[in-house]
Design a protein that fits this description.
Blueprint (H helix, E strand, L loop, with lengths): L1 H39 L3 H15 L5 E4 L16 E7 L3 E8 L4 E10 L1 E7 L14 E7 L45 E8 L2 E9 L8 E6 L5 E6 L5 E4 L1
Parallel strand pairs: 7-11
Antiparallel strand pairs: 1-4, 2-3, 3-4, 5-6, 7-8, 8-9, 9-10, 10-11
Keywords: Bacterial flagellum biogenesis, Cell projection, Cilium, Flagellum, Periplasm, Signal
GO cellular component, one term: periplasmic space
Function: Involved in the assembly process of the P-ring formation. It may associate with FlgF on the rod constituting a structure essential for the P-ring assembly or may act as a modulator protein for the P-ring assembly.
């Protein structure tokens, strides 16, 4: 009898608890996956930040970084330790950064654009083949390195007085290929002939019969015997002739 009285007294409260229980179950179903995901997956911003920090450390101080784009739908297990990074590959305009979690066993390659401005020498007017470059013909400008190819000229000291091997349009960037090969020896110049046989060397004075650079073959007239011989120009300007 006492149990029945208690049950009747609590009946209104039991009626209220049923919808409350349903609400609690619905809340758990819809809210817990999100909370669970946040706890179980590595956040995309943390991966992006790790990649950008690595790229910043690996790039010149004045470089501009762009990228670190990662698909926001990506789900990687949360890392229990710090993320590791390394440069996977490089180009003139980008880095591929490997972001790795050793504890969770995953790695991701994140592309980061790197824009670096470098000083280049630009023609201020149209220059013809055979022109010797003067200070009035060029000026230094800052240009993105990515569009310059493999080589360029960055200062006047590198080219002052050198002869162009091809025409250069106004506004064009000068490269080493724009110039004729520099010559160590000029036609008519006095040179040292070095005759080599076994471990012995014989030296004589000669006259170059053509322009030549280091490593080039050149004909030289021996000033003593008046004979014309052929040899190879060395870096010091002498000409080696095998005996």
């Amino acid at each position: 009898m006492i149990y029945l009285h208690i049950r009747r007294a609590c009946q209104p409260f039991l009626g209220l608890m049923r919808p409350l229980s349903v609400l609690l179950i619905l809340f758990w179903l819809f809210s817990s996956p999100s909370a669970h995901a946040q706890a179980s997956y590595q956040s995309i911003p943390s991966i992006r930040l790790a990649a950008l920090d690595h790229a910043r450390a690996a790039s010149p101080a004045d470089a501009k970084l762009d990228g670190g784009r990662i698909d926001e739908r990506l789900r990687l297990a949360a890392c229990a330790g710090p993320l590791s990074t390394r440069t996977a590959s490089t180009s003139a305009s980008a880095l591929s950064v490997e972001v790795r979690c050793d504890t969770a066993g995953w790695k991701l390659f994140v592309p980061v654009g790197v824009s670096v401005q470098v000083p280049v020498l630009v023609a201020t007017r149209g220059l013809a083949r055979g022109d010797a470059v003067s200070a009035a013909d060029v000026q230094v400008q800052m240009r993105p390195r990515a569009g310059l190819g493999l080589s360029w000229v960055g200062s006047l000291d590198q080219v002052l007085g050198r002869t162009l091997s091809r025409p250069v349009a106004a506004g064009s960037v000068l490269s080493p290929a724009s110039f004729a090969a520099s010559h160590l020896v000029r036609r008519g110049q006095s040179v040292t002939l070095v005759g080599i046989s076994g471990g012995f060397e014989v030296r004589a004075q000669g006259k170059a019969l053509a322009d030549a650079g280091a490593g080039d073959r050149i004909r030289v007239q021996n000033m003593g015997s008046q004979r014309i011989v052929e040899g190879e120009v060395r870096a010091d300007g002498s000409v080696v002739v095998p005996l």
